[in-house]
Amino acid sequence: MNTPEQTMPGNKGISNFFIFQAWLVLLLASFFGASLAGIQLTLSPKIEANKLNETLEKVPELILGAEAAQALSKENRLMDIDRQFIEAGNKIYSVFQAKTNGQTDGWVVKASGQGYADRIELLVGVDAKADTITGLFILDQKETPGLGNKIMEPAWRNQFNNRPTQQQMTAVKTKASAANEINAITGATISSKAVCDIVNQTLNNLRQPLTKADSNEQKPSDNQPNNHQEKK
């Protein structure tokens, strides 16, 4: 009984098969890449809006401290927050000026820089004269879970509180002893130093402009009455 001859594909057939697979992979990669880019483009405004809302919520705490901010809220007293943009050091910073009863309580600056895994976005608060750091908050980060992401923990962030803005903060592996030293997170020295670098650069760039802005506000104006009303 005759059986059909079984033939194996030749070299040309195998080559065409792999070429087809390669093109298929490229097309799928392009499709998914375009899809992800589209999703990111769509969500980006919403993400930025959420960050802005979170920033505005954090401003009182970063300037007054958690207890004072809670007391302000319980008394139904509002902090007047004015957002402005300041160009300094070849960067444009988003700066939030906080006032109560017309007087500047302090400033909160949004800043960012390269961390270990990706960019770190943070908020740093300073007093009215930009002499002292009043608070630090990590707005966004993608550092290593269990290591670098510990920069978000209050116990670590609070080390920056009440430090002079004129000093260059540095993260050390040994126990911090100097006024400008911060205890680095064990196993995440790069992330710790990255936060210090962002804070240092931000304060170096903005200390003088913020001090000048506060001084200008303290000067009485001949054209405006010296009465301030808190915004509701």
Ordered list of secondary-structure elements with their pairings:
Elements: H1 11-64, H2 66-74, E1 80-88, E2 91-100, E3 103-114, E4 119-127, E5 133-140, H3 154-157, E6 170-172, E7 181-183, H4 189-218
Parallel strand pairs: 6-7
Antiparallel strand pairs: 1-2, 2-3, 3-4, 4-5
Overall pLDDT level: 86
Note the overall shape.
elongated
Unreliable stretches: 222-232
- Give the strand order, joined by hyphens, for the main sheet: 1-2-3-4-5
| Integer count of domains | 1
Structural class label? alpha+beta
CA(first)-CA(last) distance: 98 Å
User: What is the string of helix and strand elements?
Assistant: HHEEEEEHEEH
Q: What portion of the residues fall into strands of 2 or more residues?
A: 15-25%
Could you explain the architecture of this structure?
It is a single chain. The protein has 232 residues and is an alpha+beta fold. The protein has one domain (49-218). 42% of the residues lie in helices and 23% in strands. The chain has helices spanning 11-64, 66-74, 154-157, 189-218, and strands at 80-88, 91-100, 103-114, 119-127, 133-140, 170-172, 181-183. The strands form two sheets. It has a five-stranded antiparallel beta sheet with strand order 1-2-3-4-5, with helices on both faces. A two-stranded parallel sheet has the order 6-7. A hairpin with a 5-residue loop joins strand 4 (119-127) and strand 5 (133-140). It is elongated, with a radius of gyration of 27 Å.
